[in-house]
Automatic annotation (TrEMBL):
It comes from the Bacteria. Gene3D superfamilies: Ribonuclease H-like superfamily/Ribonuclease H. It comes from Microbacterium capsulatum. This is IS481 family transposase. SUPFAM superfamilies: Homeodomain-like, Ribonuclease H-like.
């Protein structure tokens, strides 16, 4: 017998008062009164508990927004583009519709648009490395693509490690050592030379593991290695059979091939047109999770770029990522001392980038790129006042 039925029959059959029933069964007198009157109106239907669901949900996502979320998911998926909850939430924000990532996820899940992937590692287990400044490190690799004619071609890319900005993306019948040096030079002409490069150990990039190559006897290296040495650019190579070292460019190929699967090409020219359009979308439209859902183009232009610089050169820049404390300041170690830079309480808890060049420091808001303060550092004083 259900609890409500017991309470109602204690009044109607046993003829107990509301107060007696409440004391005997440990409930409120108000509940007993309500149940009895409900039974008088509905009969035995009052025995079953009623739903606690509210009559109205003022905070419920509007049907038009739900439809837009599902439409964006289908549209992005059909184009082979990133269609996760973060991306959809950012695209809606650009349409002046504020929806949280969690809300988008719940709507996609309820609609059956999300496939569980328990095999994936939790993000908390990742150990992420990112260069501090644009052009501090470029990653490069090439991958194979099959045209609709069955012909195998190769695509080479250059990716900025700090901002994920896709600097270069071209298709070739075959990627050779000459292709590497030509694409690197073309990219550097447009964006400036990087301080370092990171690639795998392919022969087009390095001969360090080859007999007679760089690092083996009197080997002199290939054209790319010679070019980097001449320019003072540090060359880095991942460990053999450890592609995760070049994880950013490797992950990019997964994103690209997902898109190319929806845009099959018959020729190199047709493939290159697709690559050009995708590069523009990737750099200027697609929000990237690893850089705070900003676009790579925004992150690439936010702070000054690194350049090939000798370690003993006094013109080296330092980069510090920090959050302004509750007193409106940050702490910076400079010339062996801890200096406190007063930025202002109006900017409390704002995430910033601190650029230090010799005795000058510039504070930039990470989210907007706004310059919040400039300092001329005085190592003889602990507290530093901003210029102006």
């Amino acid at each position: 017998m259900a609890k409500y039925e017991v309470l109602i029959k204690a009044v109607t059959v046993q003829k107990l008062s509301y107060g007696e029933v409440a004391r005997r069964y440990g409930v409120s007198k108000t509940l007993v009164h309500k149940l009895h009157h409900r039974w008088l109106e509905e009969g035995d239907g009052a025995f079953e508990p009623r739903s606690r669901r509210p009559h109205a949900s003022p905070n419920r996502t509007a049907p038009t927004v739900r439809e837009r979320i599902l439409a964006l998911r289908d549209q992005l998926a059909a184009a082979g583009l990133d269609n996760g909850a973060d991306t959809i939430a950012e695209l809606l924000a650009r349409e002046r519709v504020t929806v949280s990532r969690a809300t988008v996820w719940r709507i996609l899940t309820a609609a059956g648009r999300v496939s569980p992937q328990p095999q994936k590692r939790p993000r908390s287990s990742w150990r992420r490395f990112t260069a501090d400044r644009p052009n501090e490190l470029w990653q490069s690799d090439f991958t194979h693509v099959t045209l609709t004619t069955g012909q195998e071609v190769e695509v080479i890319g250059w990716l900025d490690d700090h901002s994920r900005y896709l600097l270069h993306l071209t298709a070739h019948r075959r990627v050779t050592g000459r292709t590497v040096t030509d694409t690197f030079t073309t990219t550097a002409t447009e964006h400036g030379y990087p301080a370092a490069t990171l690639t795998d150990n392919g022969m087009v990039y390095t001969t360090r593991l080859a007999r007679g190559g760089r690092g083996r006897g009197d080997g002199g290296g290939n054209g790319f290695e010679t070019l980097l040495a001449t320019l003072g650019i540090t060359q880095k190579n991942g460990k053999p059979f450890k592609p995760t070292t070049q994880g950013k460019i490797e992950r990019f190929w997964q994103t690209l091939k997902k898109h190319l699967a929806t845009r099959p090409a018959r020729s190199l020219l047709e493939l290159q047109a697709t690559l050009d359009a995708f590069r523009d979308h990737y750099n200027h439209a697609r929000p990237h999770r690893a850089i705070g859902r900003h676009t790579p183009a925004f992150a690439y232009q936010l702070i000054p770029k690194a350049t090939p610089t000798a370690p003993e050169d006094p013109g080296i820049w330092r980069v510090r990522y920090d959050t302004i404390d509750n007193d409106g300041k940050i702490t910076l170690r400079h010339t062996g001392r801890l200096l406190h830079l007063g930025i202002g309480r109006a900017h409390t808890r704002v995430e910033i980038i601190c650029l230090v060049h010799n005795d000058n420091a510039t504070i930039i808001a990470t989210a907007t790129g706004e310059i919040l303060a400039d300092f001329t550092l005085d190592p003889t004083r602990s507290y530093q006042r901003k210029n102006g």
